[in-house]
Amino acid sequence: MTTSSSQVAEKLVHVPLGERAYDILIGPGLIGRAGGEITSRIKGRKAAIVTDENVAPLYLEALTDALQTDGIEVASLTLPAGEKTKSLDHLAAVCDMALAARIERNDAIIALGGGVIGDLAGFAAGIVRRGVRFVQIPTSLLSQVDSSVGGKTGVNSRHGKNLLGVFHQPDLVLADTDTLNTLSEREFRAGYAEVAKYGLIDKPDFFEWLEKNWKQVFSGGPARAEAIAISCQAKSDVVVEDEFENGRRALLNLGHTFGHALEAATQYDSSRLVHGEGVAIGMALAYRFSARLNLASPDDAERVEAHLKAVGLPTRISDIPGEALPVERLMEAIAQDKKVKSGKLTFILTRGIGQSYVADDVAASEVLTFLELQKAR
Amino acid sequence: MTTSSSQVAEKLVHVPLGERAYDILIGPGLIGRAGGEITSRIKGRKAAIVTDENVAPLYLEALTDALQTDGIEVASLTLPAGEKTKSLDHLAAVCDMALAARIERNDAIIALGGGVIGDLAGFAAGIVRRGVRFVQIPTSLLSQVDSSVGGKTGVNSRHGKNLLGVFHQPDLVLADTDTLNTLSEREFRAGYAEVAKYGLIDKPDFFEWLEKNWKQVFSGGPARAEAIAISCQAKSDVVVEDEFENGRRALLNLGHTFGHALEAATQYDSSRLVHGEGVAIGMALAYRFSARLNLASPDDAERVEAHLKAVGLPTRISDIPGEALPVERLMEAIAQDKKVKSGKLTFILTRGIGQSYVADDVAASEVLTFLELQKAR
Ligand SMILES: NC(=O)c1ccc[n+]([C@@H]2O[C@H](COP(=O)([O-])OP(=O)(O)OC[C@H]3O[C@@H](n4cnc5c(N)ncnc54)[C@H](O)[C@@H]3O)[C@@H](O)[C@H]2O)c1
Ligand SMILES: NC(=O)c1ccc[n+]([C@@H]2O[C@H](COP(=O)([O-])OP(=O)(O)OC[C@H]3O[C@@H](n4cnc5c(N)ncnc54)[C@H](O)[C@@H]3O)[C@@H](O)[C@H]2O)c1
Ligand SMILES: [Zn+2]
Ligand SMILES: [Zn+2]
């Protein structure tokens, strides 16, 4: 992954959530400036950094130095990389580290890493002393455009993904675009699935722009920072309208009901599937399912699939390497997914590109039949 | 403990917290009516009851029957009794039970027991699916007058008490006064310490009333329900003013900084000290400390100690059975207590009976000297 990020102007997206409002800064070199950005916004002078084994060797020292330069006392914990780290056991370890470091209400827990670290560290920040300050320094594309914004935190349970957590908004998000230079192509693509998602939810023009400009987004430069900023703004808009997910926010789950089921059925084994890949397949399925229900045109479903394929993302269940996934296992995972209300299945369906909506009355039998059909493809 | 509760009229205290407003019902026979009270307030028809080994044999069947009669599907988990149950491990067990029971956002987790069960179950209700409904059925005096109201939930850490948790208000509190008939004298007394606390914070008349009427509160009857209702109202008033403990709510910690330190130093061993006993000693210490600082008169400190003694509560560190507690251990526990901001000690001090206030600049050295002096007493 190459980038010409130093020519990219910094972007700011403000998330206007009243008492919980915060800034998202997007641009190069932000880790080096983290100390000043934090001390100008947070009273405490202690920080507990949570990161993972891939990210620590790349950025932990630079961040620690930057914080110490501005007089912040730093403790840190480096955890294994991967979805399995989002567990109650690791949550306990993070909380213990923060308490040992005597993090108080006005001090910060800092997430330095992808969405796994962000979700875990944010959960800890939400429960240590019933809430301490929280700073996101997302280093994967997925976390820069999605998970670091909006305050959803959590860990997985044996019953499903993200079933335990709290809403705890960050006080600051620093999306340092330089960090994307060390991200693998595969992870960059996975994050791109969430970028495309914003277009598919309600921004047909953005989707069209991506169809034309995706190569520049991948190669870095102004188009990349532009895509990240548009994505953060899109997420912010939805979150501000529905902070606690009682309605519209569910739209952000486009592709996620299927996606989460695929992740669960592959036991969160990242060698087979990572979150964004699950979302890519899930979005393709959501469009195909909507076409099957005569809601969207098959052409739109084709167009979505074509674009995701062009960037190298999987779009079919059979694209997942390894043993075939039994439909029953997927149905079970879907039923336990948290977007189930009083027994009925809630799905994000669509009437076309950028015309998604929340359907809360989807019959399980329809889903089952649809999934059975996918086996033949 | 005897009671004439059937003659006591039911009392209602409403906690006006906007979207999070709820009712506290106080009176006899409420467990038998739990189904109707819940179904009229909560949409879901599933409930996960959390209780402990002392309370389960007494009330779990009655509650289960009452809920099932009103069409609520019930799952339950019975945990060991005692403060050690407030741990992340038990939290994981409660969450797992609730998820296995497919508790969704509109279903309820129900706490049936004392403050330990309430704090633990409430924490679980705050994090399962990022928040499900929560019903408190407090069965100890302490939980009826204090812990079941106000939305503070949590568990202990090796670094100190209640260091992990969330604010999660209940949707309903059912304080069934009949359950107090099976509570031990010792636990009833411990709960009484929190009743007296409300008088000592800012209700000198209530404290005076208690000095005259405490025997009737202990023996049951109208004075008992009256004292519980006044206590709930007092707690509600403070919580409504400062839901997230940024200021005035800290007053409820009168006696608790010392109390928590004593609990920690005795390793939460209930054979030596239970929470309310720690609070009783803590309040006596807070008044003596305030007298030593020339804030309150020694007469007031004497009066507080005399009343607590009269009802049979401990008032001195040396009243705790077992080996003497080193002052250093207490200081360490105080320093790690969560009412510490940027290094300074926050204490609730007092200018007299019912004249408590938050002091956030108490020098550690003063506390140390004061505690050293207590050894001689
Ligand atoms: N909270 C939310 O709103 C939200 C939204 C979307 C996704 N998520 C969660 O986010 C998680 C997925 O996030 P993710 O894709 O970032 O996963 P991740 O955190 O596992 O990161 C992906 C991989 O990239 C590595 N990595 C991260 N930054 C790097 C860098 N700069 N250089 C080299 N390697 C780097 C990580 O070590 C990891 O191996 C899932 O758990 C998902 O549930 C949460
Ligand atoms: N959340 C808050 O705002 C808040 C406020 C004050 C205290 N607390 C917490 O509450 C806890 C103390 O509460 P507690 O004193 O109720 O402790 P507890 O829950 O341990 O109950 C005390 C004992 O009484 C038993 N018991 C309870 N009800 C009974 C009944 N009806 N009959 C017979 N036995 C019964 C229990 O099994 C236990 O052995 C502490 O953990 C404290 O930190 C929380
Ligand atoms: Zn996602
Ligand atoms: Zn208490």
TrEMBL record, chains A, B:
Entry's cofactor comment: Binds 1 divalent metal cation per subunit. Can use either Co(2+) or Zn(2+).
Cofactor: Co(2+); Zn(2+); NAD(+)
Keywords: Amino-acid biosynthesis, Aromatic amino acid biosynthesis, Cobalt, Cytoplasm, Lyase, Metal-binding, NAD, Nucleotide-binding, Zinc
Pfam families attached to this UniProt entry: DHQ_synthase (PF01761), DHQS_C (PF24621)
Highest taxon listed in the record's lineage: Bacteria
Biological processes per GO annotation: amino acid biosynthetic process; aromatic amino acid family biosynthetic process; chorismate biosynthetic process
Signal sequence extent: none
UniProt keyword NAD present: yes
Amino acids binding Zn(2+): 194, 256, 275
Localization: Cytoplasm
Gene Ontology terms, MF aspect: 3-dehydroquinate synthase activity; metal ion binding; nucleotide binding
Domain 3-dehydroquinate synthase C-terminal as annotated: residue spans: 191-340
Pathway(s) this gene product operates in, as recorded in its UniProt entry: Metabolic intermediate biosynthesis; chorismate biosynthesis; chorismate from D-erythrose 4-phosphate and phosphoenolpyruvate: step 2/7
EC number: 4.2.3.4
Enzyme class, UniProt record, top EC level: lyase
Swiss-Prot/TrEMBL catalytic activity: 7-phospho-2-dehydro-3-deoxy-D-arabino-heptonate = 3-dehydroquinate + phosphate
Domain 3-dehydroquinate synthase N-terminal positions: 77-189
Chief site of localization: cytoplasm
A Gene Ontology term for the protein's cellular component: cytoplasm
UniProt keyword Acetylation, yes or no: no
Binding sites annotated in the UniProt record for NAD(+): 115-119, 139-140, 152, 161, 179-182
Function summary: Catalyzes the conversion of 3-deoxy-D-arabino-heptulosonate 7-phosphate (DAHP) to dehydroquinate (DHQ).
Family label: Belongs to the sugar phosphate cyclases superfamily. Dehydroquinate synthase family.
Annotated protein name in UniProt: 3-dehydroquinate synthase
Organism classification: Bacteria, Pseudomonadati, Pseudomonadota, Alphaproteobacteria, Hyphomicrobiales
Gene transcribed to yield this protein: aroB
